[in-house]
Design a protein that fits this description.
446 residues, alpha/beta, Purple Acid Phosphatase, chain A, domain 2, 5'-nucleotidase,  domain 2
């Protein structure tokens, strides 16, 4: 962020000297609780950084929306000096945060009227457990676009919906001029033109800065040019004022997270390829806590071991930084066996996942609770599943339904299709797996 701040300051000064209206916009997911500063402040420090950088507008990403408790999200932007726009987020208690706007109308220095609407991804399986609701994006657009068109010369969509949805929005709505996208962390270096809209996105991790340039003809009374660019800033020097602020926030966060969780008499080892005591106990905890028939967790969730001595919440966060919640899914016995087979394959264990909440290096070996998995080795050294039994010694019935606790990571994408396609997914929020890890350390290793 110290690099992007440097660009923003320089570019904003240049635009102001040229008499050009300009705004800085965040498309969501600025809050990520895998960072200790965000964890300690529940995102309030992130908002302060956006204030200091001179942001004008922001929409909400799923990291803001579903990794914070209802109360923490309700108060996240209390001190924001920028406007927050999201047309499809509502509170189930009908108490709307005072900072939340569905649409925004603004005007350039030369009197051109701009209408802006924000939209976020409808992950209602999580949102509704947190007492929020996200309406479908097209319902929100149908409700607001005509009104925006009547009051604005230009319509801009701040979309935390993903590239495929952005493309469909452009195809459906002739009146939309610009779609600034996020969520799928895609990069569009020179803009994508569909129908009347230019679509843009700047990737992830602040490696790129996105810029949209709109040229209005006062004579023709319309936009005559729409440009969008994403520029690589990885080699740009940092803004040292921002760097100092972040350093101070880091020290404050470490002090806040220094509360002792447990004292260990001996070190706890972690391995991504073999079962360890701490992973066994964490998997037992998630099974007991969710009251599931069995549980499975991948060893890559723990990034490092713990030395003997006092363990703080900062240590717990360091070794388990993922914003991942527990989930219980229902699986037929045959599906469960197939999941176990897939999870013990070399390809699965060594898969370097980026996304779905996972902030580690590789998935690692699956560890089970409530199940006994007997394996053998092929001649080529690859492991295979010989038998799967319950902890009472009975074999898993292929036709029986079992309730399995695991990480919510596997309910997305195609890592373990049987889990992703499960008809029943009971998510547990706002607890993260690291909260259960802290509880496991206190009860089993203290």
């Amino acid at each position: 962020m110290a690099k992007s701040d440097r660009i923003f300051k320089n570019e904003k000064n240049l635009r102001q000297r040229n008499g050009e209206s300009n705004w800085i916009i965040d498309i969501g997911d600025h809050v990520d609780r895998s960072h200790p500063i965000t964890e300690a402040s529940m995102g309030k420090s992130n908002v302060q950084l956006l204030n200091d950088a001179g942001y004008d507008f922001a929409t909400i990403g799923n990291n803001e929306g579903i990794t914070l408790s209802h109360d923490d999200l309700y108060h996240l932007y209390d001190e924001a000096e920028f406007q927050v726009v999201c047309a499809n987020l509502t509170s189930l208690d009908d108490i709307v945060p005072p900072w939340l706007q569905q649409t925004i109308n603004l005007q350039t220095v030369n009197g051109i009227k701009i209408g802006m609407i924000g939209l976020t991804a409808p992950f209602n399986a999580f949102y509704e457990l947190l007492n929020w609701h996200v309406t479908p994006e097209f319902d929100a657009l149908d409700k607001h676009i005509a009104k925006l068109k009547a009051s604005a010369d230009i319509i801009i969509v701040l979309s935390h919906l993903g590239i495929s949805v952005d493309q469909e929005i452009a195809r459906r709505y002739d009146d939309i001029d610009v779609i600034i996208g996020g969520h799928t962390h895609h990069l569009i270096k020179d803009g994508e033109y569909i129908n009347n809209a230019v679509i843009t996105a700047a990737g992830k991790h602040c490696s790129y800065i996105g810029e949209v340039v709109l040229t209005w003809s006062h004579e023709k009374k319309k936009l005559v040019k729409k440009e969008a660019y994403a520029t690589d800033i990885t080699e740009v020097a940092k803004d040292m004022q921002t760097e100092r602020k972040i350093h101070k926030m880091q020290l404050k966060a470490e002090a806040f997270l220094s509360e002792k969780v447990v004292h260990l008499d001996k070190p706890l080892e972690v391995s991504w390829y073999t079962e360890t005591k701490v992973m066994e106990e964490l998997t037992n905890t998630i099974r007991e806590w969710t009251e599931a028939d069995a549980a499975m967790l991948n060893s890559g969730l723990l990034l490092d071991g713990l030395p003997a001595g006092n363990v703080t919440y900062r240590d717990v966060h360091r070794i388990c930084p993922h914003p991942i919640n527990p989930v219980v899914v229902d699986l037929k016995g045959a599906e469960l066996i197939e999941v176990i087979r897939a999870s013990l394959s070399k390809e699965f264990m060594e898969y370097r996942l980026k996304g779905f909440g996972f902030r580690g290096e590789m998935l690692g070996r699956m560890v089970f609770s409530g199940l006994e998995v007997v394996t053998g080795l092929h001649k080529d050294g690859n492991e295979y599943v010989q038998q799967v039994m319950l902890d009472n010694g009975q074999p898993v019935d292929p036709d029986k339904t079992y309730y399995i606790a695991t990480a919510d990571t596997f309910t997305f994408g195609r890592l373990l299709p049987e889990i992703a396609k499960s008809n029943t997914k009971q998510y547990f929020v706002p607890e993260f797996l690291r909260d259960l890890l802290a509880d496991t350390l206190r009860k089993k290793f203290g």
